[in-house]
Amino acid sequence: MPPCFDNADAVTFRKREKLVALLGRTDTGKTSAFNIMTGLSQRIGNRISSTTQQCFSHSNFIDTPGFGDTRGGESSHLSLVDFFISLSSGIDILLYFVRFGAMNSTDLDLFVDIYKRILSIEAYSNSCLVVTDYSLPNLEQINIDDNEERKHLLKQLHENDKYSYVLNKFDNRVIFIDISPFDYRRREISKGVIEKFLASFQPTKRFNCQNLQDAYRLLRRTQEMETRCLDFKTEIDQLKTQNQHLTHLYEQQIRHCRDLEESYQRSTKQLEQVHEQTLLTIENNHMITIEEMKRQEYRIRNEVKQVRNQLEEIERDMERSLTFNVASYIPLINIITNIIELNTKRRITQRIRKTLHTKKKGS
Ligand SMILES: Nc1nc2c(ncn2[C@@H]2O[C@H](COP(=O)(O)OP(=O)(O)O)[C@@H](O)[C@H]2O)c(=O)[nH]1
Ligand SMILES: [Mg+2]
């Protein structure tokens, strides 16, 4: 028979029957139980990941996505609560699924979280614990109330903190089933166990799904936060990529800077060397110039000396020549003097003669 409905309006249609919701962690056997109870063959999981993605109702059973399913996250919880809220008539029985021998502290945390955060503790009185994967042979006996084996097993379970906590909340309402895909008989026994329990369990009142409004708001906010977180994550990823890019650029720039610094230092060194060489050259040139000037001065001094000597020589020569001239004129002067003397003598003689002559004439 194909499913007649998979929405809340259709579920409320069958008000006279007990409305049963199957809850629990992913992979605990909810869909398997749903299938044997409804005769449908909804896809079941593979014990690695969940298959049920949204609430699915048929007859008076509601299969739900598993809590703690990382694929759906808060959005799958939100759709579950959304679905429950839309069940205006509420839910009669909540079957909470755990696997036999596999309840650990994470499962217990999840249980507490679901009842406190989503369903509210009022839901305890409408709930029953369904332990799946019960592989021991006494499947029928273990579900009979006064059976000694059941008493013994429950005692054992109570010794385990996790089971004990759940059983106490549910007033020891617990059934054990085994919906093995390979054992038709055990599946049938399991179906009978569930039917028997549903028929016998009479909760005092329906669990009012309207109480989930707060949870809904909370989940909606959580989902918004999840979305924002995802946005942030995307932004962070982008920033990371940008950062990597910038880091790469920065490293390139650093390398470039180092190269520049090295080349600057090389250039500075070269410049210093050139400067030193220039200074040396200037100094050398200066020394050479001073030497040269000294030599020139010396040479000029010598030349001056020579000239002076020459001058002195010339002077001496001149002096000498003057003396020589004078000396050389001496004979001439003597001669001239003699001449003059002679002339004088002659004139005197002539005068005397003249005088004498005159005298002679006068006499
Ligand atoms: N042997 C055994 N296998 C089970 C039982 N319940 C579930 N499984 C297997 O566990 C896997 C997950 O079951 P499913 O119904 O999809 O779990 P859901 O995620 O809670 O709906 C499937 O491979 C089932 O065949 C059980 O009681 N006994
Ligand atoms: Mg499922």
TrEMBL record:
Classification via SUPFAM superfamilies: P-loop containing nucleoside triphosphate hydrolases
G domain segment(s): 20-108
Keywords assigned: Coiled coil
Source organism, top-level taxon: Eukaryota
Gene Ontology molecular function terms on file: GTP binding
Pfam families named among the record's database cross-references: MMR_HSR1 (PF01926)
Coiled-coil region(s): 257-317
Protein name: G domain-containing protein
Native source organism of the sequence: Rotaria magnacalcarata
